[in-house]
C-alpha cells in the first residue's frame, strides 16, 4: 500500500482521537467484487478498511449513513463506522473490525429474529431521505406513498431504461416493464414500509466467535420486506430454518413465495447493468413472466 496513503490514515485517526495513532500493519482481505478491503493494525487496535477509486467519493458516505441507521435499531450487530474520506485516487471507509467466527446452535435463529426486528422499524413512506448505492450504482430512494409506485419508478424502470441505452434490452423489454408497472399494485399485498438491509445476500452477513450474527455492506431504504427475503434466496447461503424462524417472528403475507422472482428482479437488473452476461437473460425472463 502507498506509504503516503497510510500516513494520511494515521493523520486522520490521530486527529479523530486527538492523540497519536500509528499504523503497524496493513493486510489485504479478499472477497469483495466492488471494493478493496484490508485490516489495518494500529496503536488503537485493528480496524476494517474499505477502498475504492475517488470517483466514487460519495459511496462510502452513504454506506456510513446506512450502517448508522441499521445500528440505531439495535436489531442486529452491525460494525460501527468510524471515518470516511478521500485522498488522491482513493476513497475509503474505516469501521469497526469484527473477527469472523462460526455459527452456533442458535445463530441462524438469531439472524432470522434480528432481521424480523429490523423489519418492524417503519416509516410513513417508502424510500429514504437520500439516494445511496447498491454496488457502484446509484440507488434512487425518492419517497413514494405506495410500494407499487416506488418499485416501478425507483427500481425497475430506471434500470430497464439503462439496459436499453446499453443495448442489452430492446423495446420488447421496455414495453414489458411498463406493463408490469401497471400491475404491481395488484400483485403486492399492502404492508407498511419496513427498514431493509437492501443487499442481504450470503456475502453480507457473518457469525462472530460467539455465534452472534453480524450484517454489513447495506443498501438501506424503507421498502417491502419481501425484498430482503427474496435477496436471501437469490445466491444461496441461508438455511431453511432461517425462513421458518422468520415466519414465526414476523409472518409474511400469503403467497409470498409466488412473489420471490418479482422481488429478485431488481437485484438481477443491478447485476445485469454491472456485469452483463446471463443476468441480462434472467432479468428479461422475469419481465416476460410477470408482464
Amino acid at each position: 500500500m502507498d506509504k503516503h496513503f497510510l500516513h494520511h490514515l494515521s493523520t486522520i485517526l490521530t486527529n479523530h482521537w486527538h492523540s497519536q495513532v500509528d499504523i503497524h500493519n496493513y493486510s489485504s482481505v479478499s472477497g469483495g467484487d466492488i471494493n478493496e478491503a484490508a485490516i489495518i493494525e494500529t496503536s488503537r487496535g485493528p480496524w476494517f478498511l474499505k477502498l475504492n477509486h475517488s470517483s466514487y467519493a460519495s459511496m462510502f458516505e452513504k454506506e456510513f449513513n446506512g450502517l448508522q441507521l441499521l445500528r440505531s435499531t439495535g436489531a442486529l450487530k452491525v460494525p460501527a463506522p468510524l471515518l470516511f474520506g478521500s485522498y488522491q485516487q482513493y476513497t475509503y471507509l474505516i469501521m469497526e473490525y469484527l473477527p469472523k467466527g462460526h455459527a452456533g446452535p442458535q445463530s441462524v435463529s438469531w439472524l432470522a429474529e434480528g432481521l424480523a426486528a429490523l423489519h418492524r422499524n417503519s416509516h410513513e413512506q417508502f424510500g429514504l431521505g437520500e439516494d445511496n448505492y447498491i454496488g457502484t450504482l446509484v440507488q434512487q430512494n425518492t419517497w413514494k406513498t405506495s410500494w407499487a409506485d416506488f418499485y416501478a419508478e425507483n427500481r425497475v424502470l430506471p434500470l430497464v431504461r439503462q439496459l436499453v441505452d446499453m443495448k442489452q434490452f430492446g423495446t420488447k423489454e421496455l414495453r414489458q416493464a411498463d406493463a408490469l408497472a401497471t400491475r404491481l399494485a395488484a400483485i403486492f399485498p399492502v404492508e407498511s414500509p419496513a427498514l431493509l438491509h437492501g443487499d442481504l445476500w450470503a456475502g453480507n452477513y457473518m457469525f462472530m466467535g460467539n455465534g452472534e450474527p453480524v450484517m454489513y455492506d447495506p443498501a438501506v431504504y424503507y421498502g417491502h420486506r419481501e425484498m430482503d427475503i427474496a435477496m436471501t434466496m437469490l445466491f444461496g447461503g441461508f438455511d431453511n430454518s432461517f425462513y421458518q424462524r422468520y415466519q414465526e417472528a414476523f409472518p409474511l403475507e400469503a403467497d409470498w413465495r409466488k412473489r420471490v422472482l418479482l422481488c429478485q428482479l431488481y437485484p438481477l437488473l443491478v447485476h445485469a447493468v454491472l456485469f452483463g452476461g446471463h443476468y441480462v437473460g434472467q432479468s428479461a425472463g422475469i419481465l416476460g413472466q410477470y408482464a
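The first helix runs from residue 3 to 17. The chain has two domains: 3-96, 107-290.
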